[in-house]
Request: fold
Amino acid sequence: MLSSCAKYRITKAKTTNPASDDGQKFGDTSEPQQPAPEPVVDPQPIFPRQEISGDQITVYGNYFYIQSLHTAEVGACVPFEAFDCGPNNSGQVYWTFGDGYEEYGMSLQKGYSYEGSYPVTATCSYPGQPDETLQFTITIIPFSGGCY
Reply:
């Protein structure tokens, strides 16, 4: 019965010609082999990246990340938070909310007056690193009649 393990081929090691410093094998008269080219790395960034868990959305960037709700009711106080913008969160975060409102802050709350989909952006600014902007869309649904 054959094993399902991969089969390996063992080859005898060849000695290198001590008179040659080009890596040729002893008795080898062929041209020296060129080193293999470096692998090409795909330059596609892995950030920004979004994760949704329940009603919460987290958007990760290269330097910082943001969290909020991705769905909320008209009139609800929606939390918007930024993390790791500069050492000890010492950078500045500029938010726009898709309804004409804008504000600076690491942690703030905002309500929407009308249902719809709104693009939310947060830009982290810190000296010594390039500005980075993250974005997501928040969907505001009609008020369900609960208490706020």
